[in-house]
Amino acid sequence: MADRDYLDWPFLEPRHRALALELDAWAEGHLKEAHGSDVDAACRALVRELGSGGWLRHAIGGADASIDTRAICLIRETLARHAGLADFAFAMQGLGSGAISLFGTEAQQGAWLPRVANGEAIAAFALSEPQAGSDVAAMQCAARLDGDSYVLDGEKTWISNGGIADFYVVFARTGDGGGEGGRGSKGISAFIVEAGAPGFEIAERIDVIAPHPLARLRFNGCRVPVANRISEEGKGFKVAMATLDVFRTSVAAASLGFARRALDEALTRARERAMFGKTLADFQLTQAKLAQMATGIDAAALLTYRAAWMRDQGKKVTKEAAMAKLTATETAQQVIDAAVQMFGGQGVVSGETVETLYREIRALRIYEGASEVQLLIIARELLAGEAA
Ligand SMILES: Cc1cc2nc3c(=O)[nH]c(=O)nc-3n(C[C@H](O)[C@H](O)[C@H](O)COP(=O)(O)OP(=O)(O)OC[C@H]3O[C@@H](n4cnc5c(N)ncnc54)[C@H](O)[C@@H]3O)c2cc1C
């Protein structure tokens, strides 16, 4: 049984505790069985199940509700502990529709958010490009105004849900970036592009170590109505960063879920594995490792729920979200690696829980800002503060 003490921490309210316990029970009933090897079909099924279970409505905000970052974090943490793909399906519904929840018009919110919430429409967030990953300001995908529509040309890559999404929030350059050669964070706008829009195609599907739908997208004279632009022209960078401020913290929460599962597995293994006439748990080397794992998880959880709580208080969380993501993803990688080590040969057998976790955690240190990028964000925020 995973540690639940953190549910009583002052960052969380009684409704959060109830939500986490209710979801845990739901996940026990719904996520025990694997959803098959067809990752597209598995994701579609999970989105539908999470929608009909009522969980996806927590992933969205909009006219009727504001985004509850702590609820999103608890849901991601709980789902990740049970099944990485379920966490992915939930997270992408939130990340993919986040710009609409935060900045969309009433019409945009009405058209998409209810369908995202009930699992009828699958969402995607398309920011990265082949030459613009960590360096978002190097974005080249362009949107040119032509009458009552924009014409999009360019590519996006590493797009989660690429190939199965019903709509993509796409960031493209509508003006000069403000820097050398037109690059920079200015002059970027956000658009809703529906799957099947003429001039939009899936250029390539990408296989990764923890399989989930992922693709490179191509726009070739793709027309998007002006009504599909989210927020004002040129405000796309702000839209993207505000969305990431919510979901970056939730990446930390997902890491906590993976790490807690690894610790549970390691505790069971340590108690049960007989060696040298004792059990693995009897050795102080093992005990020290378990203690480090649990301490690292709690430290990461404190940073994570602090950032989530601050955001729910309406405070700026750029630095705190970066600290949470950096610490939780790096800690989870170490915790999971230690669990694999305790399992010995069994730890690297395909399909073993700790082996799956080892593959699942890796990308979280890269996406939504690699660890090095989080360090730079933290330092930038520190240095921008008032001098003593
Ligand atoms: C599984 C997966 C899912 C993804 N899903 C999405 C999605 O849904 N939507 C989307 O838009 N993008 C998505 N991404 C893209 C992701 O955000 C980028 O991969 C990430 O921003 C890194 O960009 P890059 O891959 O181009 O690596 P690069 O920018 O080339 O960076 C490579 C490495 O350089 C290092 N680095 C970066 N900056 C610095 C620095 N200043 N100093 C020193 N070292 C540095 C980091 O270690 C980094 O990992 C996804 C990626 C993966 C792997």
A few lines on this structure:
The chain has 388 residues and is an alpha+beta fold.
Structure description:
The mean pLDDT is 95. The protein has helices at 14-30, 39-52, 69-82, 84-103, 106-117, 236-272, 284-312, 318-343, 353-362, 371-384, and strands at residues 123-126, 142-146, 149-160, 167-173, 188-194, 200-205, 214-225, 229-230, 274-275, 278-279. The chain has 388 residues and is an alpha+beta fold. The chain is built from 10 helices and 10 strands. A 4-stranded mixed sheet has the order 1-4-5-8. A 4-stranded antiparallel sheet has the order 2-3-7-6, with no helix packed on it. Bound molecules: flavin-adenine dinucleotide. Flavin-adenine dinucleotide (FAD) binds at residues 125-128, 133-135, 158-160, 208, 214, 363, 366-368, 370, 372-373, 376.
Name the features.
binds flavin-adenine dinucleotide; four-stranded antiparallel β-sheet; 388 residues; alpha+beta; four-stranded mixed β-sheet; globular; 10 strands
State the distance separating the first and last CA atoms: 47 Å
What sort of overall outline do the alpha carbons produce when their principal axes are compared? globular
In terms of per-residue confidence, which ranges show pLDDT below 50 for 5 or more consecutive residues? none
The main sheet orders its strands as 1-4-5-8
Overall average pLDDT: 95
Question: What is the percentage of strand-forming residues?
Answer: 15-25%
Give helix and strand order, one letter per element, not per position.
HHHHHEEEEEEEEHEEHHHH
Class inferred from helices and paired strands: alpha+beta
What is the number of strand segments? Answer: 10
| Main sheet attributes: strand count, strand direction, barrel closure | 4 strands, mixed
- Helix fraction? 40-55%
Which ligands occur here? flavin-adenine dinucleotide
Radius of gyration: 21 Å
Number of helices: 10
